[in-house]
Amino acid sequence: MILRLIVFLSFNFGALALGSYFTGKGVSSDWYSDLLKAPWTPPGWMFGLAWTIIMVCFSIYLAYLWPSVKSKNVLIALFSLQWLLNVAWNPTFFYYHNVLLALILIVALTVLIGCILFLYWPETKVKFALILPYFIWLLIASSLNGYIFFNN
């Protein structure tokens, strides 16, 4: 269990590190600060805290899930797609300022995490609660991205 957890933590925090590399000044950039943002937009510091908690919970979820999955290839494919979508969002939004493509990416990621949640429900039972923070945060993030797209 510990080795699986370390592997998933490494991949997930690697994704966050890559994403933050492309974020640059991110929420403190002039471009982002000039956008009309949703009234429910959390303060900037909350994004880092939320993603840290989400990736710890998601890594624990995956470490528990791994031994009970019959088709490891399907889980690896879903995890890899999740990883790519997660990493791709930051440069798309913050570097290229392509709010529409970023919205498509984050909605796709939200749907994917929702599918993982329901697909592996029988294997995880109560532990599915560990993936809920990720799914809920993605719903919020999708709404924030959508608000920016439709109001700027």
TrEMBL record:
Bilayer-crossing regions: 5-24, 44-66, 73-89, 95-121, 128-150
Record GO cellular component, one term: membrane
Gene3D superfamilies: TspO/MBR protein (1.20.1260.100)
Main location: membrane
Keyword Ubl conjugation carried by entry: no
Topology within the bilayer: Multi-pass membrane protein
Keywords carried by this UniProt record: Membrane, Transmembrane, Transmembrane helix
Keyword presence, Membrane: yes
One Pfam family recorded for the sequence: TspO_MBR
Domain of life assignment: Bacteria
Localization per Swiss-Prot or TrEMBL: Membrane
PANTHER family recorded: PERIPHERAL-TYPE BENZODIAZEPINE RECEPTOR (PTHR10057), TRANSLOCATOR PROTEIN (PTHR10057:SF0)
Family to which this protein belongs: Belongs to the TspO/BZRP family.
This protein's name: Tryptophan-rich sensory protein
Taxon lineage: Bacteria, Pseudomonadati, Bacteroidota, Cytophagia, Cytophagales
